[in-house]
């Protein structure tokens, strides 16, 4: 696998945040000036790889993002009793100064500013990029769009409730000083439209599947997968269907466990964040750290998805092969198994496209197509003769619920559930009927439904308002 390097030109992103760690202020290994990078085609390609390294930082999307999303959701239980292992996230008590919020915000914006710096410089050096110019620009904009998608989801009241709700700050120009620190939040509509605008360059991305080069870097399919998520957020069902139909050349892996095993390359993987011994996240930042042995997170077997009739069937490969019981009787997720924390994170895979499209088809009134897509995903993991759900009898609300539940089970531990709850503007209900029972509604004044903009951003950006 190509090693990913971070060059000095991207360090200008730290200007947005005056209190920088030492490592950000020092020249990294293999340091090159901007002039040296943008005068050499080979170094320029490595610089593009560096953009991926930025977004997959253990403090941005490459560390705890899946675990954060699933701790906000309702299918897992945090058993860590440790603030450093997301108990505040699970308890829906993330405040202005919580570490996980500070890191996600700061380092995702650093990754975004690296993109902005890159776009500024490549525009001034088109001739060096040559035939790769359009592709590099499209890759950079895809990375920026992906960062904004996660920021928008975590920090913005649901679009379905208020499309004009205050969202995150749209920073779209290269920042190399503190001059533009003060910038107001954009609306939900504005942020989502910017993501779609960034994805409009996707026609310049490569087309391909099933090999490493088409999984660890942006492709047209990856851009359509993100575009589909945005259309679902906006309730634009026909556009979501169209985005899904543009994703071709992929099939469901025959063995679902192969998705989570080395070499992490299947016909189903569309875009993944790769890791190896040279760039893996640290222990308390690695997704696997939280799940291996149930160290911090266990599956909620009493009230979560696997407790629902039809979604905890022993013959289902997702139960038989991707869960286990520990010595205390807790139910563990076994999608992540690397003791050295080099599990790849599958951001987009084809099963999601099918289930997202199923939901969209249902909402347009095409139940037959919605059911057909649901069947594809479900029958991959459980044979019809072992299924206690009569899929052919599903219609109306029962079909809609089945699509939602199938996605909950399919993507357990993959950072999807809470995003879907937020997308639909639903209430979070954790461990109902237990001593812990937690109910958090989407009302604007409900503490914890979304995260507040971190204190350090408020201190440095005088235009931030609640």
Commentary on this structure:
- By secondary structure, this protein is mainly alpha-helical.
- It has a single domain, classed as Alpha Horseshoe (Serine Threonine Protein Phosphatase 5, Tetratricopeptide repeat).
- Helices cover about 40% and strands about 5% of the residues.
- It has helices at about 20-25, 35, 40-55, 65-70, 85-90, 100-125, 125-130, 135-155, 190-200, 220-235, 235-245, 285-290, 315-320, 350-365, 365-380, 395-410, 415-425, 455-460, and strands at about 75-80, 270-275, 295-300, 325, 330-335, 345-350, 430, 440.
- The strands form four sheets. It has a two-stranded antiparallel sheet with strand order 1-3.
- Strand 4 and strand 5 (about 330-335) form a beta hairpin.
Layout of helices and strands:
Blueprint lengths: L21 H4 L8 H4 L3 H15 L9 H8 L3 E3 L8 H4 L8 H25 L2 H4 L3 H23 L32 H12 L20 H15 L2 H9 L23 E5 L13 H5 L5 E3 L17 H4 L2 E3 L5 E3 L11 E5 H14 L3 H15 L14 H15 L6 H8 L3 E3 L7 E3 L14 H6 L6
């Amino acid at each position: 696998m190509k090693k990913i390097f971070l060059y000095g030109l991207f360090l200008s992103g730290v200007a947005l945040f005056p209190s920088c760690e030492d490592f950000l202020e020092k020249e990294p290994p293999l340091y090159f000036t901007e002039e040296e990078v943008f005068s050499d085609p080979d170094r320029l390609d490595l610089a593009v790889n560096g953009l991926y390294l930025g977004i997959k930082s253990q403090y941005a999307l490459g560390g705890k993002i899946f675990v954060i999303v699933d701790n906000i959701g309702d299918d897992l239980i945090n058993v860590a009793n440790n603030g450093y292992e997301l108990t505040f996230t699970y308890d829906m008590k993330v405040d202005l100064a919580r570490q996980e919020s500070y890191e996600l915000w700061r380092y995702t914006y650093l990754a975004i500013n690296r993109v902005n710096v890159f776009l500024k410089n490549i525009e001034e050096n088109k001739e060096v990029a040559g035939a790769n110019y359009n592709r590099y620009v499209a890759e950079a904009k895809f990375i920026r769009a992906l960062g904004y998608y996660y920021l928008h989801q975590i920090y913005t009241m649901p679009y379905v409730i208020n499309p004009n709700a205050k969202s995150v700050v749209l920073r779209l120009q290269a920042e190399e000083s503190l001059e533009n620190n003060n910038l107001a939040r954009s609306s939900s509509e504005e942020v989502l439209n910017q993501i779609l605008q960034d994805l409009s360059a996707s026609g310049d991305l490569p087309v391909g599947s099933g090999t490493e080069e088409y999984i660890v870097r942006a492709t047209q399919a990856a851009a359509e997968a993100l575009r589909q998520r945005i259309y679902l957020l906006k309730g634009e069902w026909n556009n979501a269907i169209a985005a899904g139909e543009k994703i071709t050349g992929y099939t469901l892996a025959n063995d679902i466990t192969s998705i989570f095993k080395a070499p992490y390359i299947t016909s189903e993987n569309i875009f993944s964040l790769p890791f190896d011994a040279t760039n893996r996240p640290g222990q308390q930042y690695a997704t696997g750290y939280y799940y291996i042995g149930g160290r911090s997170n266990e599956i909620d077997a009493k009230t979560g998805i696997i407790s629902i009739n039809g979604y905890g069937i022993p013959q289902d490969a997702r139960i038989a092969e991707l869960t286990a019981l520990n010595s205390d009787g807790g139910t563990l997720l076994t999608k992540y198994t690397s003791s050295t924390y080099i599990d790849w994170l599958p951001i987009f895979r084809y099963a999601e496209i099918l289930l997202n499209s199923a939901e969209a088809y249902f909402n347009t009134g095409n139940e037959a197509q919605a059911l057909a897509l649901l069947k594809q995903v479900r029958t991959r993991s459980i044979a019809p003769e072992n299924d206690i759900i009569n899929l052919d009898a599903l219609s109306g609300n029962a079909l809609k619920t089945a699509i939602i539940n199938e996605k909950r089970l399919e993507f357990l531990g993959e950072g999807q559930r809470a995003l879907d709850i937020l997308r639909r503007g639903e209430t979070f209900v954790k461990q109902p009927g237990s001593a812990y029972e937690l109910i958090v509604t989407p009302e604007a004044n409900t503490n914890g439904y979304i995260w507040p903009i971190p204190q350090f951003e408020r201190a440095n950006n005088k235009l931030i308002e609640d």
